[in-house]
Design brief:
With 330 residues, this protein is an alpha+beta fold. 44% of the residues lie in helices and 16% in strands. The chain folds into 2 domains: 103 residues, Phosphorylase Kinase, domain 1 (2-Layer Sandwich), CATH 3.30.200.20; 194 residues, Aminoglycoside 3'-phosphotransferase, Chain: A, domain 2, CATH 3.90.1200. It has 9 helices and 9 strands. The termini are far apart.
Length: 330
């Protein structure tokens, strides 16, 4: 006996069947016959690898409750804009009806799918080479420069301190013990005080990738980069992107020589003001708190077991290190 709709339990996450993706999603694109469609990995979105006789694609389905349709369409419009101007990004394809995204009526609510070209090359194993880091810095500078001309009718939350810090703190604070809570709250106040007069004007403010690091870049054998995963993009400070790269690099143990090569590559294409360089440490701390909030929100829905004492203790200690003047800038 089949249950009625009223008998069904609510769902907060579902995995879309690859066979349904082939028949109901990929069939709406003008691509070659699909040989393989398989669930590839789960992050802030679900990623499917699509293979055809002539090449590969990536289909990404955003999690319900993480991104709105306007958020998705903003990102896709930006990637199309950058691709049309010659930037090396994995860009979205249009459906036969001209759409960049497809709404999926999943059990938990509407989710949005987009099909991307596959980034040439692969993720570097271990440290970036000096040449790769330089190229990545150069390319990020070009994204910032080109993005100054980007206009979009879709609204997405800008990467302001209210969004990056205040909203993140609202999510984090209930889980901390008093001493840690007071320390992090004080750190956030110091960051906001130090950045309160930071100019929100061109060229300091514009399009940000939001998540620049080697894990979101494929390199060819000739070290030509292709950028992907702009899920965290938005209007923001270019210095924040530099801080985000540094935050990921320090967290993953990337050497100082590589970090410096990245910054030198960036500055060779786009000179930075001294006040921007001085603010990178504060933006690195900001990125750490934002990523902490994102990880917490993800774990609450997908892996609550991660939220033990070590999850919070580790991140408080990382923040202490990032605030320490003993840590080298790049």
């Amino acid at each position: 006996m089949r249950s009625s709709a009223d008998d069904l339990f609510p769902v907060v996450y579902s995995t879309i069947d690859p066979s349904a993706i082939r028949s109901r999603i990929l069939s709406r694109y003008d691509i070659e016959a699909v040989k393989v469609c398989e669930f590839w990995c789960r992050g802030l979105s679900d990623v499917y690898l699509v293979e055809t006789d002539r090449g590969s694609y990536i289909l990404r389905i955003a999690h319900w409750g993480w991104r709105s349709q306007a958020d998705i369409d903003f990102e896709l419009a930006l990637l199309k804009f950058l691709h049309d101007r010659g930037l090396p990004v994995a860009h979205p394809l249009r459906t036969e009806s001209g759409k960049l995204s497809i709404a999926i009526p999943a059990p938990e609510g509407e989710r949005y799918a987009a099909l991307f070209t596959y980034a040439l090359g692969g993720v570097p194993i271990g440290d970036l080479s000096i040449r790769q880091a330089t190229r990545l810095g150069e390319t990020l500078a070009k994204v910032h420069q080109t993005g100054l001309a980007f206009e979009c009718s879709f609204e997405r939350e800008p990467l302001t301190l209210d969004y990056l810090l205040d909203e993140s703190w609202t999510a984090i604070a209930p889980f901390l013990q008093r001493d840690d809570r007071e320390y992090v709250e004080s750190a956030i106040a110091q960051i906001k005080t130090g950045l309160k007069d930071f100019p929100r004007s061109s060229p300091y403010w514009g399009i940000c990738w939001g998540d620049p690091h080697s894990g979101n870049t494929h390199f060819t054998e000739a070290d030509q980069p292709t950028l992907f995963d702009f899920d965290q993009c938005g209007f923001g400070w270019r210095a924040f992107d530099l801080g985000k790269f540094r935050q990921v690099a320090l967290n993953t143990g990337i050497s100082r020589r590589v970090r410096e090569a990245f910054l030198q590559g960036y500055r060779s294409m786009s000179p930075l003001e001294e006040f921007e360089l001085a603010a990178i440490s504060a933006f690195t701390q900001t990125a750490h708190i934002w990523v902490w909030s994102i990880s917490l929100t993800y774990a609450l829905r997908h892996n609550y077991s991660r939220l033990d004492d070590s999850f919070f203790r580790k991140r408080v200690e990382q923040l202490r290190k990032l605030k320490s003047p003993d840590w080298q800038m790049f």
